[in-house]
Each structure stands twice: as structure tokens, then as C-alpha cells.
Amino acid sequence: MLIGEREKQMQKGLIVGLILLVTGILSAWTYNKAVGFAIFVGSEEGAIENLEKYSKEMNYKLLGKSCAETDSDRDGYITCTGRFQGADNAPEFKELLDCGSGAWGARTGGCKPKFAPYPPTMQQLPAPTPSAPAKPESR
């Protein structure tokens, strides 16, 4: 009789444990879809590493850096701002970049400009040629 009671308790414990496990998995999946886990969406450390590689590849001196903590739009990139100085003591400048977040399974890497350079280069349009005054119609 003692063994039967113990088996029933183990079965109840197993069922409760499975229910908790399934509930935990569903909760984690829902949270990941709503907010995101850093392991799936990357993190600031991965973006900073890519920002430092970008500055070396572009032959810029990295003077300052700031990145978002997570990839909020889940495109595999994290928005970063870098303060750089070009070669030969060129004036320093800031650049807004999307840097690969290092997300597990993401095929993103390096950095790319977030927007076109500012101010945009404008082409000088030719001045309009003056037209001859309109002739009054004769009737």
C-alpha cells in the first residue's frame, strides 16, 4: 500500500512539473515575441565590437561611442553613434550607424550608415531662363 501511495504522489508531481515546464516555455516564447531576449536579438557589446572594427576599416580614430542596449526593431542591427577623427588630424565628426548586434543566428555584421550624410550635398540648379512677355491676343 505504501508503494501505491508513493507512485500516485510521483505521478502528481510529474504532471505538475510538466504543466510548469510547458507554461514556462510558452511564457518565454511570448516574452521573446513581445520584448525580446538579448541572446536572440543581440546586445550592445556586439554592436560596440562592430563599431570598433568599422573605425579600423575606415582608418578613423574612434574618439567616443554610444550604442543602444538591444535591437528593438529586430533587424539584427543596433543603432550606434560614433565620434571619429579622420587621418592627419582631420576635424572630428559624428556618424549615426547601424551596427551588427551579434545576435545568435543573425547574418548581420559590421556597420552601415543609418541615414545619408548630413548635410546632404546639394547640386546647384541652373537659374531659370526668363521667358518673353506674353503677347496679348488680337481678336
Write structural notes for this entry.
With 139 residues, this protein is an alpha+beta fold. The protein folds into 2 domains: 1-35; 38-113. Helix content is 37%, strand content 20%. It has helices at 2-34, 38-41, 44-57; strands at residues 61-67, 77-85, 92-100, 111-113. Strands 1-2-3-4 form a 4-stranded antiparallel β-sheet, with helices on one face. It is elongated. The mean pLDDT is 79.
**Unreliable parts:** none
Specify the helix fraction band.
25-40%
First-last Cα distance = 122 Å
- Tell me the domain tally: 2
Principal-axes geometry comes out as elongated
Please give the number of β-strands: 4
Strand content: 15-25%
**Helix count from the secondary structure assignment:** 3
Helical/strand content category: alpha+beta
Radius of gyration: 30 Å
Strand order of the largest sheet: 1-2-3-4
Mean pLDDT: 79
Helix/strand order:
HHHEEEE
Can you summarize the main beta sheet?
4 strands, antiparallel
Short recap of the structure:
With 139 residues, the chain is α+β, with helices and mostly antiparallel strands.
Can you give keywords for this protein?
alpha+beta; 4-stranded antiparallel β-sheet; 37% helix; 139 residues; 2 domains
Topology (SSEs and partners):
Layout lengths: L1 H33 L3 H4 L2 H14 L3 E7 L9 E9 L6 E9 L10 E3 L26
Antiparallel strand pairs: 1-2, 2-3, 3-4
